[in-house]
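Summary for the steering committee. One of the milestones for this cycle was to obtain a three-dimensional model of the protein with PBG bound, which we needed before selecting residues for the alanine scan. The sequence and ligand used are listed below.
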Amino acid sequence: MKDLIFDRHRRLRKTPALRSMVKETSLSAKDFVYPVFVVEGHHIKKEVSSMPGVYQYSIDRLHEELDEVTALGIPSIMVFGIPDYKDAEGTMAYHDHGIVQKAIRYIKEKYPDLIVVADTCLCEYTDHGHCGIIHNGDVENDESLAVLAKTAVSQAEAGADIIAPSNMMDGFVTAIRHGLDEAGFKDIPIMSYAIKYASAFYGPFREAAEGAPQFGDRKTYQMDPGNRREALREAQSDLNEGADFLIVKPALSYLDIIRDVRNRFDLPVVAYNVSGEYAMIKAACQNGWLDEKAAVIEKLMSMKRAGADIIITYHAKDAVRWMKE
Ligand code: PBG
């Protein structure tokens, strides 16, 4: 044995203190954005059946959620609205009294320090459930841009701190940036869903936000899961158009893409740990097949390690509680 040369990696794993000293990646409450679903109506707190622990709230009960979020030190939420009226153009997406606009006004009045990110899309507001305006059975790109810009401006007027367009139309960052600037919101950043795949992992969200497409799918605007180089082209476009953050979505099956984007671009990189990724863990844990606490922390850590600066995740509240233990 004396002459054998090999590395003793275990030296640095000997005690919890040593392991902590050499830990390369850390998680903190500040890393998280917590998604919140707001519905029209009163006295509503309704659990999303495919997302145990996630609820739709009416505005009058939203404080139950937000008191918890702020007490845990989570700095930011992402707001999704579920309207009580839908039409072909998604007019309630940009209506001054739309559910998101009302919710944001309420939140910013009661929780002025909470960073409110508005998801800018039409699928929750259109009767066909697509993310833009339909012509001849497909989403018409350029016509949708005007509606998206209008939606972003209405969200900024309500008090949104960050606009997060998730619709995957070409040129949406340019259109929204122009719209915001013209309306006097030059300082409102755009957190672009730059890289969004046509993923099976959005299923539970479509129950939560009631925005499933009523015909066809989103493959003419969301990306093919097999494509890696295309992700960099998408990110480059959004950077050129003035995006301030780049989102990669989903996260868990796309850690390679998060790393590619981190290596190539210097903007803050955001991983969206989507509904299906949450549901998988919850289901396995309800069956007793996984240790939820350990699995969730490991999963979120992997996204940071891959290169994400920020994680949008339904696990945020639990994760912060567990990190404090
Ligand atoms: C709206 C939007 C979706 C998600 C976020 N914004 C749904 C979709 O594109 O189908 C999915 C989020 C999740 O699954 O957690 N376009």
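Key point for the committee: The pocket of PBG is lined by residues 119, 121, 123, 131, 166, 202, 205-206, 274-275 (CB under 6 Å).
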